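Entry type: protein chain
Record version: 2
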Amino acid sequence: MKIKQDTREPELQLLADLNEMSIEFVREFMKVGDYEFNNVIVERKEIDDFCNSILDKRIENQVKNMKQSGKVCFIIIVGNMKDRKVDIHENCLLGKMVSLIIKHNIKILWCEDEFQFLYLLKNVYEKTNEMSKV
C-alpha cells in the first residue's frame, strides 16, 4: 500500500518496515493534511501540537482546508493526555474534540505512540479501500 506523506512529517518508513506493515510512504509536500490515500486526508497531531493548535487557533484553519478538499478527514492524536506539557485544561481538549466531530464531521482517533499510529493508518487505509470497492 502506498500512502502519500508530507515532507514535513517524521519519516516512519523504518517503523513500518520493522512492524512488517507493508506501507510504502511517498514523500511530497502537501498543502493539506499530513497523509493522503484513497479518498482520505489524515492530520497527525502529537498531543502538545494538538494543544497548541487549539490555543493559537491553527486547528480551525487546518480543519477548514481539510474539509474543502472534499475528502474524508481524520485527525489522529499521538500521545497521552496526562503527558502534555502545554498548559491547557483537559476539558478544553475534550470539548474541542467533540466540536470537531459534531460540527465539522472530522473523525478523531487517539493513540499512544508511533507504532499505534501506523496501525491506525494502515487500518483506515484498508477499510476505506474495502469501502471504495463496494
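Comment: The chain has five helices and six strands.
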